[in-house]
Amino acid sequence: MRLSAKPTILFFHSSADLYGSDRALLALVAGLRTVVKPVVVLPEEGSLVRELTRLKIKVRILPISVIRRKDLSPLGMIRYLLRFIPSVKAVRRLMDELAPTLVYTNTAVLLPPALAARLAKIPHIWHVSELLPWGRSLFTKLWLTYIALFATRIVAISRAVKAQFPNFANVTVIPDGIALTPFLKIKRPRLAEPVYKIGMVGRINALKGQSTFIKAASLLLKEYPLLRFEIVGDTYRGQHKYRKRLERLIEKLGIGARVHCIGFRSHIAKVLTSFDLFVMPSESEGLGLAAIEALASGLPVVASRVGGLTELITDRENGLLVPPKDPPALAHALKMLIDHPVLRRKFSECGRASAQERFSNRRMVREHIDLYEAILSEKSPFPLIELAPSSLKKPI
Q1: Could you give the residue ranges of the DSSP H alpha helices within 99-209?
Q2: Count of CB atoms within 10 A of residue 205's CB?
Q3: What pLDDT score does 384 carry?
Q4: DSSP codes, 322-379
Q5: Which stretch of DSSP H or E encloses residue 42?
Q6: What number of other Cβ atoms are within 10 A of residue 73's Cβ?
Q7: What is the dihedral of CA 305, 308, 310, 312, to 10 degrees?
Q8: Which of 53, 134, 199, 220 has its CA 20 to 30 A from that of 214?
Q9: Residue 153: beta bridge partners?
Q10: Which of 105, 82, 201 lies closest to 153, judged by CA?
Q11: Rounded to whole angstroms, what are the CA distances from 91 to 141, 348, 383?
Q12: Which residues, other chains included, contact 80 with Cβ-Cβ below 8 Å and sequence gap of 6+?
């Protein structure tokens, strides 16, 4: 079945900022707007609203309950549940008003749209970019099971994310894509010259590895005192304590003149133009959109050997992989690149080629359209549960 005349799709998202998952959603709906009528539902105003409005994509602001880190405790979950039912009712009213053909939840931390879609008997796609916390704890298992039960299809952004759902067959891997042109236009004339600036981009939180980056910078500055390090990004609103902790670490190490937290920047291509090397020292990462952008811009990349980053970077082919939370290993990898311009050139060329081949926005949009068509052609698009064949085998 081909898509009918521009079906309405509700896209629910948890943030109005412009970090990785926000930019991925923006790229997706921008590419889809010629074949569907996207309506993006956000819990607040922000930079993403302005970008969507500029593209003439409809936006609705609806204060939906979002799972934040403060909710990941017994008391926090009780408080969350008290917000959950009113959120489901509000989402259901919106669905009744707009009568969408499909509902698309863009994050694992937004639970109400899934239940509202099931009650309204509307097919629901759950886009999961996160590797959920606490390993295989009971809480995480319940969270993942809820996602699987209330999704017509799950879109995982990497094989690492898909691996969280080993017992379910309704999971499709569609990696994020980016608008490549702004990054491919970046010239890298300085690859043969000395490295001057090393940077990272991402939301400031413990899992993104900014403290590892700062400690590695301290080690490198002992041998390369003219290097400059930049941390691009900021915390969630009202959660500035972690940034203050990083600033105190920089001060304690005595490297404040060479290491800078410069805050959020909306024009990432412009930021990457000024870098010589890019680092993604995450402790957990579903895929790593910022790393894709860095590869496309021709930056040599050093990343942690975790999650979806191992699907972006093939060690010593288009970048370097290091253990997470290991400042000496990160410093050693960066030193290798600082000292070997030929290696920097190789990673620049191979990284850009891999991004161009695998992570275009056009490919991402096409795969989503194929998925929508498959769902809408099904006779019963509301399976309560769809088990993987391996889960049905009896133990010997």
Answers
A1: 112-120, 138-149, 159-162, 181-184
A2: 17
A3: 45
A4: E-TT-HHHHHHHHHHHHH-HHHHHHHHHHHHHHHHHH-BHHHHHHHHHHHHHHHHH-S
A5: strand 37-42
A6: 11
A7: -130
A8: 134
A9: 125
A10: 105
A11: 25, 45, 21
A12: 65, 67, 71
How many helices (H) and strands (E) in the chain? 15, 13
Candidate from 65-74, 132-141, 303-312, 380-389 with smallest mean pLDDT:
380-389
pLDDT digits (tens, 9 = 90+) for 25-37: 999 999 999 999 9
Residue at 150: amino acid letter: F
Three-state DSSP at 180 gives coil
| Domains of the chain, CATH where assigned | 8-177+360-390 (3.40.50.2000), 181-358 (3.40.50.2000)
For residue 155, give the 3-state DSSP assignment. Answer: strand
For 143-161, letters b (16+ CB in 10 Å) and e give: bbeebbbbbbbbbbbbebb
Cβ neighbors of 230 (< 8 A, separation 6 or more) are 197, 198, 199, 200, 259, 260, 262, 275
Q: What are the two backbone dihedrals, phi and then psi, of residue 128, each rounded to the nearest 5 degrees?
A: -115, 120
For residue 9, what are the CA distances in angstroms to 29, 42, 54, 58, 371?
10, 14, 19, 11, 13
Q: Which amino acid is at 281?
A: P
CB 304 within 8 A of CB 285: yes
* End-to-end CA gap in the chain: 42
Cβ atoms < 10 Å from Cβ of 56: 7
The full DSSP string for 87-111 is HHHHHHHHHHHH--SEEEE--TT--
- What is the spatial distance between Cα 25 and Cα 79, in angstroms, rounded to a whole number? 28
CB count, 10 Å around CB of 378?
13
Q: What percent of the chain has pLDDT over 90?
A: 80
Give the whole-angstrom CA distance, residue 359 versus residue 180. Answer: 8
213-225 per-position pLDDT tens digit: 999 999 999 999 9
